[in-house]
Design goal:
The structure is a single chain. The chain has 2 domains: 153 residues, Nuclear Transport Factor 2, Chain: A (Roll); 84 residues, Nucleic acid-binding proteins (OB fold (Dihydrolipoamide Acetyltransferase, E2P), Beta Barrel), CATH 2.40.50.140. It has 5 helices and 10 strands, in the order αβααααβββββββββ. The strands form 2 sheets. It has a 5-stranded antiparallel beta sheet with strand order 1-2-3-4-5. A hairpin with a 2-residue loop joins β4 and β5. The protein is globular.
């Protein structure tokens, strides 16, 4: 449990697939079943069954640890159990353009044990929540669980605010700004397009032209999907440090 808490507090910046499409609901369900099987095997102490569900690269890393000593094996299993959430709620999923990598962003939760006391940490019996990004890779014609990355509790994120109508005079036209990150949300509004970009524990609202006019900036509306990594240039809002009007946007190539 302590490792789960530490992972949630680590504020990992996850660079997901730079070019991706929404994940098919049926495939998402299949992959979540795979993840559930892995967690159940870990909970039961069956490392052999659990490792069979992981990618070859991950299996090699674990096997190297398992060969060290019985104590190392016990520590590895304890760590894996500690990182296993009690509940998992899918938030969104994406599939890389080559169809070989699937990513599912979930909301995981775990109850702090009654006998675990952590200074300045959550109280025993309380429920800790965190975004957990699951990555799966296609190997040998089938899907394998590759990795999980822990983020913050979404309720602790400093969100950005958007206006119904955006006015150019609200922005500082004498300053230039460059920023970017993974797209968390896209909203095509009547007078503008909103991209919500998150970096660590803070969101930024990127304001672009409305969908019908994105082509003038060389931007394809269909390419603006969650988890895509973008770099942007524009002008900052005069009073809101978490909002900027965008004049250029580049989608980073797949890594």
């Amino acid at each position: 449990m302590r490792l789960f808490l530490l992972a949630c507090a680590s504020l990992v910046f996850l660079a997901g697939p730079a070019a991706a499409a929404a994940l098919d609901p049926a495939l998402q369900s299949q992959l979540l079943v795979l993840y559930d099987r892995y967690n159940k095997a870990i909970s039961a102490g069956n490392m052999k069954e659990a490792m069979a569900l992981r990618t070859a690269a991950t299996q090699a890393q674990f096997q190297a640890e398992l060969k060290r000593s019985p104590k190392a094996q016990a520590n590895l299993l304890a760590m894996a159990r500690d990182m296993t959430p009690e509940t998992v709620e899918p938030l969104r999923g994406s599939l890389s353009n080559d169809g070989k990598t699937a990513t599912i962003v979930t909301l995981g939760s775990k109850t702090v044990p009654a006998n675990l006391k952590i200074k300045d940490g959550p109280k025993p019996g309380s429920v800790v929540k965190a975004e957990i990004t699951l990555e799966f890779q296609k190997e040998g014609g089938g899907w394998k669980f590759a990795n999980q990355t822990f983020g913050m509790d979404p309720s602790q994120i400093k969100v950005c605010t958007d206006e119904t109508v955006e006015v150019i005079t609200a922005y500082d036209q004498d300053r230039n700004l460059s920023f970017g990150g993974p797209i968390r949300r896209v909203d095509f509004k009547p007078d503008h397009t909103l991209l919500v970009i998150r970096v660590l524990d803070e969101e930024n609202c990127a304001i672009l032209p409305r969908r019908a006019e994105l082509g003038k900036l060389g931007i394809k509306a269909d390419a603006l999907v969650p988890d895509t990594i973008v770099e942007m240039g524009g002008i900052p809002h005069k009073t809101d440090k978490q909002r900027a009007m965008v004049s250029s946007l580049r989608i980073l190539p797949a890594q």
